[in-house]
Design brief:
Blueprint (H helix, E strand, L loop, with lengths): L2 E4 L3 E7 L2 E2 L3 E3 L1 H12 L3 E8 L4 H9 L2 E9 L5 E7 L6 E7 L19 E4 L4 H9 L7 E5 L2 H6 L1 H8 L4 E5 H8 L4 H10 L4 E5 L5 E4 L5 E4 L13 H16 L4 H18 L6 H5 L2 H15 L4
Parallel strand pairs: 1-5, 1-9, 2-7, 5-6, 9-10, 10-11, 11-12
Antiparallel strand pairs: 2-3, 2-4, 7-8, 12-13, 13-14
This protein binds adenosine monophosphate.
Adenosine monophosphate (AMP) binds next to strand 2 and helix 8.
Length: 305
């Protein structure tokens, strides 16, 4: 089924205890599109970049079947830039720089043939743009998933709350869930956040896995795969979201059982993302790699009765 993705497509500079990069391709929608295109070939991207952007990356997305007709390239302008630095434990990071550049006045254009998508992934960017994109879609999709971050809770909370009323699933990390709800307990936080609009909430806990909260207060937990080395966690959340919605768009289902499977797909995808800097690893894995990893997840969680 058709899947429309919006979000930042950007340049990042990343510092970890293992090293640092210069400017490399990043952005929420870059990770999401790479992950979804592993599972599904009916993906459209709505985003904006400056004329400085790496067009080889866009070509790579096209080769993987992603329709980039909705990607605007602004001449004379610079792409969004984010510089992050991870602490020793790799679970927390500081944002050193956020330069919105072309994202500052981004007016999303949804191409005519993408106005009736069955699945929509509103990746991380301004809630105002997320809202505008939804308004420019003609029919209510089967499922709308939204990812956001503390930055937008700090600067655009009212608009974020407006978008939350129009979506089905919110994915955020534990710290952001606590900030948004004002509750420390994640179970209480989930109840407060679901009352804001989304029927389902996914709380990402980095190396400690992900929690899916459902309509009847059901909870599903999927651990993260313990890895010998976590090289760079950037984009793991976006890759998770891409794997999650990519799986649902592939099977065309939105029930809770399918969402549990989707959480496992998202976790398997994210486990690759952290193994190299930026988008490098997620761009090079094969279907066989993914299937091997899904089997590892399944074995890790199996108990004999
Ligand atoms: P994650 O590690 O999943 O939180 O996502 C990291 C990606 O988010 C990076 O590639 C950044 O380019 C992108 N990013 C960081 N800050 C923002 C922001 N304020 N709006 C949109 N994207 C952002």
């Amino acid at each position: 089924m058709s899947l429309l993705v919006i979000g930042s497509v950007a340049f990042d500079a990343i510092e970890t205890p293992f090293g640092e990069t210069g400017k490399i391709v990043g952005g929420a929608a870059s990770y999401i599109s790479l992950a979804t295109s592993m599972l599904h070939n009916n993906v459209g991207l709505v985003a904006v970049v400056g004329e400085d952007f790496d067009m080889d990356f866009v070509k790579n997305l096209n080769d993987r079947g992603v329709d980039t007709t909705g990607l605007q390239i602004k001449s004379g302008e610079k792409s969004f830039f984010w510089h992050g630095k991870y602490h020793m434990d790799m679970n927390s990071r500081d944002t050193i720089t956020t330069e919105l550049n072309v994202l500052g006045d981004f007016d999303p254009i949804v191409p005519t043939n993408w106005k009736n998508p069955e699945f929509v992934m509103l990746g991380n960017l301004s809630p105002d743009v997320q809202l505008k994109t939804l308004e420019r879609i003609d029919t209510r999709p089967k499922m709308v998933v939204l990812d956001t971050m503390n930055f937008w809770m700090d600067v655009a909370l009212d608009t974020l709350k407006e978008v939350l009323k129009k979506i089905d699933v919110l994915t955020i990390n534990d710290e952001e869930a606590r900030q948004l709800s004002g509750e420390y307990s994640l179970v209480k936080a989930a109840r407060v956040i679901r009352e804001m609009g989304p029927k389902y909430l996914i709380i990402k806990k980095g190396e400690h896995g992900a929690l899916l909260f459902g309509e009847e207060e059901e909870i599903f937990f999927c651990p993260a795969l313990p890895l010998k080395e976590v090289f760079d966690p950037t984009g793991a959340g976006d890759t998770f979201a891409g794997g999650f919605i990519g799986y649902l768009a592939k099977v065309g289902k939105t029930d809770f059982e399918s969402m549990k499977q989707a959480v496992i797909y998202g976790s398997a995808m994210a486990s690759f993302c952290v193994e190299k800097f930026g988008t490098e690893k997620i761009a090079e894995i094969s279907e066989a790699d993914l299937n091997n990893r899904l089997e590892k997840f399944s074995n890790m969680m199996k108990v004999q009765s």
